């Protein structure tokens, strides 16, 4: 699935213009990147955690020449799936069980929001 597929799926499901949804999706992704740059961590409940980790410098070998080289330390983004996502992908939880993880109805309204309405 691509970003475009996500935009089309949301636009169709929510009855919104594709251009509006594209802007919303891009703003969301841009904001995730900005939070990672400034704070180093973002947690999306029931989805997972993105975190910036610093990789230590290490010795490596140039495969062409066999020469030993030092690879400097660098930052890398890691992702750890949340429990619900892991269980869902593993087949331990079905789509009908999504309400237990804060799922939403067809209109995109969560059970918690319905209780407040």
What report would you give on this structure?
There is one protein chain. The protein is α+β, with helices and mostly antiparallel strands and 117 residues long. The chain has a single domain (3-93), classed as IHF-like DNA-binding proteins (HU Protein, Chain A). The protein contains four helices and five strands; from the N terminus they run H-H-E-E-E-E-E-H-H. A three-stranded antiparallel sheet has the order 1-2-5. A hairpin with a 3-residue loop joins strand 1 (41-44) and strand 2 (48-55). Helix 1 (3-14) crosses helix 2 (18-39). It starts with a helix and ends with a helix.
Summarize the amount of helix as a percent range.
Answer: 40-55%
Uncertain spans, ≥5 residues at pLDDT below 50? none
CATH superfamily: IHF-like DNA-binding proteins
CATH architecture: Irregular
Distance between the termini: 34 Å
| Biggest sheet statistics | 3 strands, antiparallel
CATH class: Few Secondary Structures
How are the strands ordered across the major sheet? 1-2-5
N-to-C SSE string, H for helix and E for strand: HHEEEEEHH
Number of separate structural domains: 1
> How many DSSP H or I helices?
4
Strand content: 15-25%
Secondary structure layout plus pairing:
Blueprint lengths: L2 H12 L3 H22 L1 E4 L3 E8 L2 E4 L6 E4 L2 E8 L1 H8 L20 H6 L1
Antiparallel strand pairs: 1-2, 2-5, 3-4
Helix pairs in contact: 1-2
Summary tags:
HU Protein, Chain A, 41% helix, alpha+beta, two-stranded antiparallel sheet, elongated, 5 strands, 117 residues
């Amino acid at each position: 699935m691509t970003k475009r597929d996500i935009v089309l799926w949301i636009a169709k499901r929510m009855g919104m213009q594709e251009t509006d949804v594209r802007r919303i999706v891009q703003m969301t992704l841009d904001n995730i990147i900005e939070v990672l740059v400034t704070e180093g961590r973002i947690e999306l409940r029931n989805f997972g955690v993105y975190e910036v980790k610093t990789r230590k410098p290490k010795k490596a070998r140039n495969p062409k020449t066999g020469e030993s080289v030092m690879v400097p330390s660098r930052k890398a983004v890691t992702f750890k799936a949340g429990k619900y996502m892991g269980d869902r992908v593993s087949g331990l939880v079905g789509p009908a069980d999504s309400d237990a993880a804060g799922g939403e109805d067809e209109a995109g309204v969560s059970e918690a929001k319905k209780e407040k309405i």
